[in-house]
């Protein structure tokens, strides 16, 4: 590669991806250069520490906006509005309802309900306005389709991706069929973008578990994770994980208990009666679990990172164990939402009292409150923060975080939609 071209690469690498997408139309030479592996690798390396735009998506069927909190103005993309605002959706029929099922590596899975009640499934890259209408499994019967529509035993549970050099090269859509609410067996229906076909996979579990919450999942590195319970309480005490790129028919999925399920590894206390507010999410490329509890007039927050897929205490590494004195002394009534997907020092809490978002830095103990009624402002990662019917959605799920419900079923109420670090279109089967 001659010097002028290297110089051009160095100059273009300093522009946001929004501009890079336009530069591809300048000439055939620029398009060829930008589409090259060399330029992609140089760009990702040069901008590896730059901030990314991302959104918090609500996962409950709701009449309000899909995105409730957005981050924009970040360096890598240079967007002047939130990422999910690009989620313009076009279908060939009238749509009555729209639900984001899951978000993974810049791609989005959507279920749209047609005017006649029929479900329509799409996978897409919203920024590229690239959508694929997912065909229904050919072996799905009419009763199966009705069960899927009513979320009975069937669940359109999520999808996983395969990454290569920062680019999504394939994906798999996963639907789950459970053998009753309590079961140690699962059937998966898997659509592969590589083959353009559906196939079934039969999987067993180490022991019987409750599948009441299998309709929500978290994807990371080709693995799906579901909340599960295998204790007398309705509380979700563990999660089930399965690797869809590494597993095969007849494999066994993993059940991994959350830390502190029985004995507090910090104090040694028996925790069977402790009431938690908790969830799990992703942050900095890892599964992260956090819980908050109130004991002896003290609010404590603990955050763990999953370091191995084994059901043992060594599976979790305690990252933070701190008292939330600064919050409670400020009169803030809150509940935990998600971790920042790119910075595990930052956790997002919702302030019931002020109807605002609390951005809490676990390392410095510094926090700030952003109210929905205020103008968009900068948050801790340098991005601009925007709200979209967030208070209304929080009110709709508030009962699940009241003391009377804290022993009831936990659910995943939020999904993180994080933009990728490079332009990539939606992978498609060779025949399409």
Automatic annotation (TrEMBL):
It holds the Pfam family F-box. Residues 1-42 form the F-box domain. SUPFAM superfamilies: F-box domain. PANTHER family: F-BOX PROTEIN INTERACTION DOMAIN PROTEIN (PTHR35546:SF70), F-BOX PROTEIN INTERACTION DOMAIN PROTEIN-RELATED (PTHR35546). This is F-box domain-containing protein. The lineage of its organism: Eukaryota, Viridiplantae, Streptophyta, Embryophyta, Tracheophyta.
């Amino acid at each position: 590669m001659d010097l002028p071209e290297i110089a051009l690469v160095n100059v273009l690498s300093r522009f946001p991806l929004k501009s890079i997408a336009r530069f591809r139309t300048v000439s055939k030479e620029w398009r060829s250069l930008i589409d090259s592996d060399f330029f992609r690798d140089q760009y990702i390396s040069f901008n590896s520490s730059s901030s990314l735009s991302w959104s918090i998506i609500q996962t409950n069927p709701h009449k309000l906006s899909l995105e409730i909190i957005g981050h924009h103005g970040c360096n890598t993309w240079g967007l002047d509005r939130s990422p999910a605002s690009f989620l313009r959706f076009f279908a060939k029929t009238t749509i009555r309802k729209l639900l984001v099922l899951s978000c993974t590596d810049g791609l989005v899975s959507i279920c749209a309900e047609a005017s006649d009640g029929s479900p329509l499934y799409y996978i897409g890259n919203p920024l590229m306005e690239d959508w694929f209408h997912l065909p229904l499994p050919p072996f799905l019967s009419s009763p199966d389709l009705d069960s899927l529509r009513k979320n009975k035993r069937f669940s359109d549970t999520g999808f996983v991706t395969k990454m290569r050099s920062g680019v999504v090269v394939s994906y798999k859509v996963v639907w789950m069929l459970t053998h009753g609410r309590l079961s140690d067996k699962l059937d998966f229906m898997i659509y592969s973008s590589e083959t353009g076909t559906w196939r079934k996979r039969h999987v067993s579990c180490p022991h019987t578990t409750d599948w009441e919450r299998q309709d929500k999942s978290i994807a990371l590195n080709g693995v799906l994770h579901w909340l599960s319970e295998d204790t007398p309480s309705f509380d979700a005490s563990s999660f089930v994980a399965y690797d869809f790129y590494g597993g095969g028919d007849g494999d066994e999925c993993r059940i991994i208990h959350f830390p502190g399920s029985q004995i507090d590894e910090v104090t040694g206390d028996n925790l069977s009666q402790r009431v938690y507010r908790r969830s799990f999410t992703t942050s900095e490329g890892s599964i992260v679990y956090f819980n908050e509890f109130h004991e002896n007039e003290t609010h404590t927050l603990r955050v763990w990172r999953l370091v191995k897929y084994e059901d043992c205490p060594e599976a979790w590494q305690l990252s933070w164990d701190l008292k939330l004195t600064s919050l409670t002394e400020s009169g803030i009534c809150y509940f935990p939402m998600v971790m920042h997907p790119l910075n595990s020092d930052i956790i997002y809490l919702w302030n019931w009292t002020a109807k605002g978002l609390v951005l809490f830095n676990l390392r410095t103990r510094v926090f700030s409150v952003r109210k929905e009624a205020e103008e968009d402002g900068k948050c801790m990662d340098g991005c601009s923060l925007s709200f979209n019917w967030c208070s209304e959605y929080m009110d709709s799920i508030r009962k699940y975080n009241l003391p009377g419900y804290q022993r009831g079923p936990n659910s995943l109420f939020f999904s993180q939609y994080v933009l990728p670090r490079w332009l990539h279109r939606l992978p498609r089967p060779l025949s399409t």
